[in-house]
Every structure is written in C-alpha cells, then in structure tokens.
C-alpha cells in the first residue's frame, strides 16, 4: 500500500482505534507507540547485474513493556505524528509503506499491509512479511508465464 492511500484511510475514519495484526490473531499490544518514520532509499544490483533503486517509508512501532493500555492509538493521533514528521522530513506519499515491529518474542521484521479491515470502532491493519524475490525471474514470468521452470538467473 502506498503512503498516500494509508493516510487517506486514516482521514476517512476519524475516531477509530488503529490496531495492527502482524500474524493471524497476533496483535501489536495496544500501548504501542509510533517511534520513528524512516524515509529509506535502497540502491541495489540484482542477480542479473541490473542496478535499481527504490524508496520506501518504514514506520517503526514500539512497546516499552511498562506502559499498559487496553486501547489502541486513535487515527487522529497517528495522523498528528505523521504530520509532525512530514513537517521536519517530508514523507514521500508515492512510496510503499511498511511497518517495523518486533519484541522479546517476535523478531523485528518489516511488514507490508495486506488489507485494512474496518470494524465499528477500529481499523485493523492486516500485515504480512513480504517474501524475497528474484526480480529477473518475476519479470520473465510476467512476460512469459510458460517459463515457470526456468532457472532464476539463467
């Protein structure tokens, strides 16, 4: 999901709790904080030798383990944090948004949004860890689906 689409969803649902489900029935605890918003620039070279670059926005979620709450952050508070960040370091609205989460039991990972489920009093952001991919192979399969048994870097 792009940053602008996520922000628009927040705007469309004022007064709702913002809940993050990072695995089926596993939720970031309600006392979470948005502790950092990262503008990330990635420069890479794939296994086919082709250079590329991309920009991402990574939102870090954190729990201190001491603070307790039975209520998640409201959409307005999240928007306030994003507006504060954007005023200091502009957020690229056309980039993919990821959420960084981990605690004592869950290794830190960057999660993509699968979908956002609207409930009566909350938005449940359904997350998943995107798999790694071979870009040349993905492009080959898009152009030639019959090449499914071809080696990645052939």
Describe this structure in words.
There is one protein chain. By secondary structure, the chain is α/β, with parallel strands linked by helices. The protein has one domain (3-147). It is built from three helices and seven strands; from the N terminus they run H-E-E-E-E-H-E-E-E-H. The protein has a seven-stranded mixed sheet, covered by helices on one side.
The total domain count is 1
Euclidean distance between termini CA atoms = 31 Å
Mean pLDDT over the residues: 93
Largest sheet: 7 strands, mixed
Find the structural class using helix and strand composition.
alpha/beta
Task: Estimate the global geometry from the Cα principal axes.
Answer: elongated
Looking across the biggest beta sheet, what order are the strands in?
2-1-7-6-5-4-3
Q: What is the strand content?
A: 35-45%
Instruction: Assign a percent range to the helix content.
Output: 10-25%
Contiguous helical run count? 3
Task: Describe this protein with a few key phrases.
154 residues; alpha/beta; 3 helices; elongated
Can you summarize this structure?
With 154 residues, the protein is of the alpha/beta class.
Helices and strands in order, then pairings?
Elements: H1 3-12, E1 17-23, E2 26-27, E3 33-45, E4 51-62, H2 75-88, E5 96-101, E6 109-118, E7 122-128, H3 135-143
Parallel strand pairs: 1-7, 4-5
Antiparallel strand pairs: 1-2, 3-4, 5-6, 6-7
């Amino acid at each position: 999901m792009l940053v602008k689409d996520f922000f628009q969803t927040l705007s469309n649902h004022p007064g709702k709790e913002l809940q993050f489900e990072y695995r089926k029935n596993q939720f970031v605890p309600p006392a979470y904080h948005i502790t950092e918003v990262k503008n990330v620039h990635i420069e890479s070279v794939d296994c086919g030798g082709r250079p590329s670059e991309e920009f991402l926005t990574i939102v870090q979620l954190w729990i201190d383990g001491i603070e307790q709450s039975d209520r998640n952050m409201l959409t307005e508070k999240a928007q306030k944090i994003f507006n504060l960040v954007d005023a200091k370091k502009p957020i690229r609205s056309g980039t993919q948004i990821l959420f960084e989460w981990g605690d004592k039991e869950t290794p830190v990972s960057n999660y993509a949004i699968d979908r956002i489920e609207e409930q009566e009093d909350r938005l449940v952001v359904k997350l998943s860890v995107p798999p790694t991919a071979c870009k040349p192979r993905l492009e080959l399969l898009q152009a030639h689906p019959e090449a499914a048994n071809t080696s990645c870097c052939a």
